[in-house]
Amino acid sequence: MGVGDRVSEVVAEETRGVAPGEVPGGLCVAAVRLFPVAGAGVALYGAGVPLPLGASGVRAAELMELEGTLGDGPCLEAARTGAAVFATDLSGARDTARWPLYAHQATAAGVGAVYALPLGDGTVCVGTLDLHRDTPGELAAGEVRTAWSVAGVMTAALVALPFGEEGGGGPWSSPQATDHDQIHQAVGMVMAQRGVGPETALDLLRGHAFARGRTVPAVARELLARRLRLDPD
Known about the structure:
This protein is an alpha+beta fold. It folds into two domains: 3-161, GAF domain (Beta-Lactamase, 2-Layer Sandwich); 174-224, Arc Repressor Mutant, subunit A. The chain is 53% helix and 15% strand. It has a five-stranded antiparallel beta sheet, sandwiched between helices. α1 (3-15) packs across α7 (141-160). It is globular.
């Protein structure tokens, strides 16, 4: 059985008969079966903010949330560049120099390496497949080929999903998608309150969340409920 056939078989087993909103999570479970990794997540990206669609477990979900709060990390870099980004030793000098805060937080959570692959058609990156290991290390050449095959199958599966109410409730109607919409609304509020552009407003949201050990969606909800203002110091 070839790599592509094996990938298709495992993905089919993990997604057969599940509701559209559960497909991304099934894809992540399939990825963990196909690789010597501890976890996997899949996220779409828009305006610099990740929209987590599914994860194989709690830690994989927390890693995506961490990058959303910090605005930095290997998965966000893969989304921005459209190229694979492998952080093979998050405790080593090279990776800590690239992402100081992210590397510190990730290693504190027991993550040794992260492998992020872009999802798309080669010209447009719509998201990432995020794999992580407990220990540092590189992917073997065969594992890299399998990773790209998985990314291709994931892209096709996500594109085929029915999104929104007309399609029966897909990932865009998930709680994560609601968080994404609220972040964009909160960015608009900060722009109005502080007289800044969207990138600066998003940085202010992230900075407030990180300084208080909170998530960006949680801070966005407080802003929208008028329980918080990010006024100048």
